[in-house]
Write a structure and sequence with these properties.
With 583 residues, the chain is of the alpha/beta class. The protein has 18 helices and 26 strands.
Length: 583
C-alpha cells in the first residue's frame, strides 16, 4: 500500500503566504549562483572525486521596504496583526512564522514550500532543523513518501539526507548539486558538547581538514525550524548563526517567540474546518466506598430500541472450586449482584440494580451506591487498573472499526507502555509480558461477543485474525541479543525523557504503509512512552497511556487544547471518510 496525497486548499494557502513575501525577487540562474567549493587539503587522487563547482542560494536582493510591504499584504489578506518592521535577528534578516495546528500537515506544507521557492526564485539549498531524533526520523520519512507526489507536480525530486558527522560525503553532494537539496538535522548535532557533536565545528582529517559548518554555510541555506519553541535556548540560537542562513522559516502550532507571522491556522480554525480529529478523553475514577470492599467497575451504559437500558459491569464471582475471578456481565434493572456472584458476602447488602440512567451514564443500587461510567470501587489494584484500561481500548477499537470497515479504512490502536518487559518477557516460555497476556485475554473475551452477531464481511475479517497476530511491539533492539529492549533516554537538557535510539522510530516509520493495509493483521501496537512525538499515522483512532490510580478525567476537548491525561483517546475522521490530519 502507498499513501496518496492530494492538494488541500488550506495547505496551499500556507505555502502561498510564504512565497508571496518575496514578490519581486528575480529568479536565479545556476550560473549566477555557482561558486568554488573549498577543496580543503585533499590529495590529488581525492580531488577527482568531488566537483569544484558548488551552487548556493542566490542572495535576497529585495530591499527591506519591499519585503515589509510584501509581508504586510500577506498579513492583511489573512487578517493577521500587521508588522511595523522586519523582525530581524542575529540569525537572519528575514524571520517568518507559520502557525499551523498539530495534525494539519505542516511537514507537507514546508516541503511543498521548498518546491515553490525553487520554482519561483531558484533557491535550492534548505536545512530542516528539528528538536529531537523522533521528529527528525518523521521528517525524513515524509520527504521519502511525498517524493513521487511532488515529482508529478514539479517534475523534479528533492535530494535529502540526515546529517551525520561520520558521513560527511553527503555535504559534498549538498554543495555541488544544482537541484533541490535538503539536509535534515536535529539540534543536538550542533549545540551539544559531546565529541561527535563538536565535529561540525572542527577541522577534520577525514574531511580534507575542513570544518563541516563552513561547507554548509557557504551555501547560504534557507533554514526551516520545525517546532521552534523547543529550540529557543541561548546556545541553540547562537549555534544557528553559524549556518549563515538566507532566511528562517518557523513552523509550529505554539510559537513562543513571535517574528513576522504570515499565516495562522489555529486549533479552533482547524477544528471548525474539520481538518483534525476530535478528541474524546476517557479516564478511570477510583472511588472509595465506606462499608464495602466489593469490587465493581462500570464500563458502559448500553441502550437499545428493543429493550430497557443495560450496563456492562465487572464484578467478582465465586467459582465452583471456591476461587474468585472477575467477570464482565450485562446487568438490567432488578439484577442482584449477590446472586450473580454466587453468594459473595461483599454484595449481600442491597446490591440490586434499582436504576440505569442513560442520560447521566449512571448505575444505582438499592443500597444508595451510585456509579458513573468509568468508576471503579473496592479493591482496585495497579494490575486491575491496567486491565481495565486495556479492555476499554479494545472496546473503543471495535466500536470504531465496525463503523469504518465497510469504507475500507483500517483502525489502529496505540499503547504507550513504560517498559519492554511488560510486553515481551524473555524469562517465560512464551515470552509474553503481563500486558500482552492481559491483552489477549481481554481481546478474546470481547471478540467472542462480537462474533455472536450476524455473519458479515466484518465478522469474516475478524475470524481470519488470531489474537496473538493482531498485536505487535515496536521497541529498540539490543544489538547483541537481537531482543527488544528499553531505549536509552536523555536524563537532562532539552531532550530529557526522550529516547535517543533510532531503532524504535525506524521500525514504526518503515512499517507505516504496511500497517494501513487490511491484509496486515496487526491492529494493536505496543510501543515505549519515551517516543512522545514524531510518529504519526492517520489510522490511529485509540491511544492508551499509563494512568495513575485515582486520576479522573472526562472531557471532550478541541484539538490543541493542551496535554491529554492518561486515558483512552478516541478520534474521528472527517465526514467524507478522509483522515483528519492534513495528509
Amino acid at each position: 500500500m502507498k499513501l496518496k496525497f492530494k492538494n488541500q486548499a488550506y495547505q496551499t494557502a500556507a505555502v502561498q503566504a510564504v512565497v508571496d513575501c518575496f514578490k519581486g525577487q528575480p529568479p536565479a540562474s545556476s550560473e549566477a549562483i555557482s561558486y568554488r567549493i573549498d577543496p580543503g587539503k585533499a590529495k590529488a587522487k581525492t580531488d577527482s572525486l568531488f566537483s569544484d563547482a558548488g551552487f548556493k542560494n542566490a542572495d535576497l536582493v529585495l530591499p527591506d521596504a519591499t519585503l515589509l510591504d510584501n509581508i504586510q499584504q500577506v498579513q492583511h489578506q489573512q487578517n493577521l496583526p500587521v508588522s511595523d518592521a522586519l523582525a530581524k535577528t542575529k540569525i537572519a534578516r528575514v524571520n517568518l512564522d507559520v502557525e499551523m495546528e498539530t495534525g494539519t500537515g505542516k511537514t507537507y506544507c514546508y516541503i511543498k514550500t521548498i518546491f515553490e521557492l525553487n520554482k519561483l526564485y531558484g533557491w535550492s539549498k534548505f536545512i530542516i532543523v528539528v528538536p529531537s531524533i523522533a521528529i527528525r526520523e518523521g521528517v525524513a520519512k515524509s520527504l521519502a513518501i511525498t517524493a513521487e507526489h511532488f515529482l508529478q507536480t514539479y517534475q523534479k525530486k528533492a535530494r535529502f539526507f540526515i546529517y551525520n558527522s561520520k558521513q560527511l560525503h553527503h555535504l559534498e553532494s549538498f554543495s555541488s548539486d544544482a537541484g533541490i537539496n535538503v539536509m535534515v538535522i536535529n539540534v543536538q548535532a550542533f549545540n551539544a558538547t559531546g565529541k561527535d557533536n563538536r565535529r561540525i565545528y572542527e577541522e577534520l582529517d577525514d574531511f580534507q581538514s575542513r570544518r563541516p559548518i563552513d561547507v554548509i554555510s557557504a551555501n547560504r541555506p534557507i533554514l526551516i525550524l520545525d517546532e521552534p519553541q523547543k529550540m529557543e535556548g541561548g546556545k541553540t540560537l547562537d549555534s544557528l548563526v553559524n549556518f549563515k542562513p538566507l532566511m528562517v522559516l518557523r513552523y509550529s502550532a505554539t510559537h513562543k517567540t513571535t517574528h513576522n507571522k504570515i499565516h495562522r491556522l489555529d486549533a479552533l480554525d482547524a477544528y471548525n474546518q474539520k481538518l483534525v480529529k476530535k478528541i474524546a478523553v476517557r479516564g478511570i475514577a477510583v472511588k472509595g466506598l465506606a462499608g464495602t470492599a466489593g469490587y465493581l467497575y462500570l464500563q458502559s451504559v448500553e441502550i437499545s430500541s428493543k429493550k430497557p437500558p443495560e450496563v456492562r459491569v465487572e464484578f467478582e464471582q465465586k467459582l465452583a472450586g471456591g476461587n474468585i475471578k472477575r467477570v464482565v456481565r450485562k446487568l438490567g434493572k432488578g439484577d442482584n449482584l449477590f446472586e450473580l456472584s454466587n453468594g459473595l458476602d461483599q454484595y449481600r447488602d442491597g446490591f440490586v440494580v434499582s436504576d440505569i440512567n442513560a442520560n447521566t451514564d449512571t448505575l444505582s443500587f438499592t443500597n444508595g451506591v451510585e456509579l458513573t461510567v468509568g468508576d471503579a470501587t473496592g479493591d482496585v489494584t495497579e494490575a486491575a487498573l491496567r486491565r481495565i484500561q486495556i479492555r476499554e481500548a479494545i472496546k473503543a477499537h471495535f466500536d470504531k472499526e465496525q463503523v469504518l470497515f465497510l469504507q475500507g479504512i483500517k483502525v489502529l490502536t496505540l499503547f504507550f507502555i513504560d517498559e519492554v518487559a511488560k510486553y515481551r518477557d524473555y524469562s517465560v516460555a512464551d515470552e509474553k509480558g503481563e500486558y500482552a497476556r492481559v491483552f489477549e485475554e481481554e481481546y478474546n473475551l470481547y471478540l467472542n461477543e462480537i462474533l455472536d452477531l450476524d455473519e458479515t464481511p466484518y465478522i469474516k475479517y475478524l475470524k481470519g485474525i488470531a489474537a496473538d497476530k493482531t498485536h505487535s511491539g515496536y521497541f529498540s533492539i539490543d544489538k547483541k541479543t537481537k531482543r527488544l529492549a528499553d531505549p536509552t533516554v536523555a536524563k537532562r537538557g532539552e531532550n530529557a525523557g526522550l529516547s535517543d535510539d533510532v531503532d524504535a522510530y525506524d521500525l514504526i516509520l518503515k512499517d507505516k504503509e504496511r500497517l494501513l493495509s487490511l491484509a496486515e493483521p496487526v491492529r494493536f501496537i505496543f510501543s515505549h512512552s519515551a517516543l512522545r512525538e514524531g510518529w504519526d499515522n492517520p489510522n490511529v483512532f485509540v491511544i492508551l497511556l499509563p494512568q495513575t490510580a485515582g486520576l479522573q478525567q472526562r472531557s471532550h476537548a478541541p484539538p490543541g487544547s493542551g496535554p491529554r491525561p492518561a486515558s483512552i483517546d478516541q478520534s474521528e475522521w472527517r465526514p467524507d471518510g478522509s483522515p483528519g490530519n492534513g495528509a
